[in-house]
Amino acid sequence: MKEYASRLMSRLQSTEKSEKADAVYITDPYNMRYISGFAGGEGALLITQERCVLITDSRYTEAAQNESDFEVIEESRKHRREAILQEICQQQAVQHIAYEDLHLTCAAFAKLRKALPEISSWIPAGEEVNHLRRVKTAEEIALLQRAEAIGDAAFEDLRKILKTGMTELEVAAELEYFMKKHGAERLSFETIVASGPNSSMPHAVPTDRKIQRGDFLTMDFGCCYHGYCSDMTRTVAFGGLEARQTEIYETVLQAQKTALAVIRAGITGEEADRAARDIIEGAGYGECFGHSLGHSVGLYIHEDPRLAPGAEDVLEPGMAVTVEPGIYLPGYCGVRIEDLVIVTEDGCRNLTSSPKELLIFD
């Protein structure tokens, strides 16, 4: 993993604001894992031109030594992190440290500056560290694909038992059980299950409401496999639908298929979002699609770049993004359909295989 540390140092020193950095301090757990291989999440990295150091406590030192090729130093009450940083900086003659200003709290940063008064400058790294994770390697894509396959398998199992009378909480519990059964390490986010009028809330929390005939049921769920996240949404129905409900579903499905057809390397996140939004607006539901079309996925469930209005980031081959348009009518119903795709030179590769035609359970 030291190659990622080397890439990071080179990247920081090639940017105007960080050209003086002779060390970088990493505290974001996802960046720690990406750069060092350490999955524990508790600790920090200090990378200089000559040393790659992973600082953590006794709960994680053995795991850190097994997972990472970094030099592991144990912190304790007798040998606090600030003292370890000071020792390394003095040994390596470090004067300018780039740090994760998007993650480090003001209180933690103030404590750090007080403990290391000899450091000449602290340089905000901004998005430079996160930027390393945007384009996925072949190994990362394989892990994302496996995580998404677990979600597909869980949804297939759920379809065999789904029926009216089940509560939203029961559906969520079954989905989570099936994902674990198929090899999930943990959930990538809290499972969303929303039925009937509750489905108009994009991030509804499952309740004890029972599924009824005439309901839409929206399920947004994902899991982690070797640290990498899956994310998918499916909306199904339970008989007795009104014509307007069917129209809403078909509009969302058309919007998603249109976006999938235009996503490729070289377009912006805004252009991808616009392709889906035009369909929904054309059907008269523009005000009912309040969130963005999608986001990147990796070690963390919501990464950059985004597929959203005003998103100027250009998509590159190897980026993993969700495509999830939706229509939500408060007090009536909501529909969202979401796939996870890998951007390619001439299109995108869909990692989600669950059916998208409207499934109706009687």
Describe the protein's architecture and organization.
This protein has 362 residues and is α+β, with helices and mostly antiparallel strands. It has two domains: 130 residues, Creatinase/prolidase N-terminal domain (Creatine Amidinohydrolase, Chain A, domain 1, 3-Layer(aba) Sandwich); 213 residues, Alpha-Beta Complex (Creatine Amidinohydrolase), CATH 3.90.230.10. Helices cover 34% and strands 22% of the residues. The protein has ten helices and 19 strands. The strands form six sheets. A six-stranded mixed beta sheet has the order 4-3-2-1-5-6, sandwiched between helices. A hairpin with a 3-residue loop joins strand 2 and strand 3. Helix 7 crosses helix 8. The protein starts with a helix and ends in a 12-residue tail after the last strand. The mean pLDDT is 95.
